[in-house]
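Today's session is about reading a structure prediction critically. Students often jump straight to the picture, but the first step is always the sequence itself: look for stretches that repeat, for charged clusters, for runs of hydrophobic residues. Only then move on to the predicted structure, which in these notes is written as discrete structure tokens rather than atom positions. Here is the chain we will use throughout the hour.
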Amino acid sequence: MDAFDRITARTPVHTRRSVRKMLDVADRIHALLEQKGMSQKDLAVALHKSESEISKWLSGTHNLELKTIIRIEDALDEDILTVPQRPAMA
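Below is the predicted structure for this chain, in token form.
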């Protein structure tokens, strides 16, 4: 077993899931930016943030708050997170 495998084995499942989700969110934002022909600078301007802050957010290791994700969704006019809807109660 190599060092990476040993570290992974000792990492709690919830931590591994958190990292995976953060990377998924960053990947989704990168994909939307590319799809819309936007740069990180364009997103920074739209959100009144610095390019360095956007870069940090999109590194995949930053734990974005839900309200920040919603602001990004508004700026991109696209959903980043989707939550399955419960069927209506009869």
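Discussion point for the tutorial: The chain is about 65% helix and 0% strand.
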